[in-house]
Amino acid sequence: MTTMLKGRSGGGASLTEGQPKHRGSKISPRKRTVPQRVRASSAKQQRVGAVPEFSLLLVSATDTSIHVQWPTPGKLGVGSIRHIQVQWSSATCPKVKQTILPARETSFVIGHCQPGVVHFVRVLLVGGLLEKAVVCKSRQLTVETVGPPDPPVVRVRSCMFYGITVEWSKPRTYGASELCGYDVYIDREFVAKFQPHQHWYMYRLGNPCQQYAFQVQAISRQGEHEFYSSRSAPVKATWPGVKPPEVTRALADRTRAIGVRWDDPELTAVGSRSLDSR
Questions:
Q1: What is the largest CA-CA distance in the chain?
Q2: Which UniProt keywords are present, listed alphabetically (predicted)?
Q3: What is the pTM of this model?
Q4: Domain assignment of residue 176, given as a range
C-alpha cells in the first residue's frame, strides 16, 4: 500500500503550476471566442430592426400647398396598421410638424406653405404588434414651392446719340413655375413688354442731356397663375448730347447796340467737347 501511493504521487500525472485544472481542456484562459449561435442571433436582430422604405409621389406643389400620395399598406406588403403620420418641415422653419391620419388614407395636402421655399416631407406607417412601432416609412421628399421670380439685375449697355440700351440677366424661378416675360419701366411708367428670350431694350424717344431711370420686372407662370417679381433697382442713364445754353441780356460796351451773354453749353456725351457757339 505504501509503495503504490508513492508511485502515484511521483508520476507524470501530477498537477503543476500554470496547467488547467480540467484534464483535456483546450480553451486558453486568456482568449475566449464568441459562440456562433450568438453571432447569428445578433445579425438576425439587425435584419428584423430594419424598417422598409417606399417612395412618395408628388401630385402638385403650388405657392401655398404641397399634395403628396403614397401606396396602400397592402401594396407595400404591410399588414394591418393603426394610423399614418405625415411629417414635414422647411428650410425657414426646421421644427418638424406632423398630423395623424386614418390607416385608410393614401394622400394628404399640406397647407399654409411659404412660397419659394424648400420643404421636406416624410410619411410613417404605424402599427404592428406593439401598435406604436413604425412598420414602414417613406424616403424623405424634397419639394420647392412655387414663388415669384427674383428681380432681374439691370445694367446700361450703351448710351448713344440715337438711344440708350439696357440689358438684364435671366432671374431665378422657384418650384414648377416657368419664366414667361418681362415688363420694362422708365421713370416708373410702363413702356414695353417682352418675351422671356429677350434680355435687352433700346429707348429711342429721349431728349439730349436728360436723365432716365430704367427698371425691369420678371413674370413667371404655373398653369393659369402668374407671379410677378419686384421691380429691379433703378438704373439711371443720361442721354448724350449738348444742351443749348440760355441766352440773357448783357450790358453793351457801345451805343446803338444790344448785348447778350450765355454760359458754356452742357455736354453729356463721353469724350465730346464744344467746338463752336454761334
A1: 174
A2: Chromatin regulator
A3: 0.68
A4: 148-269
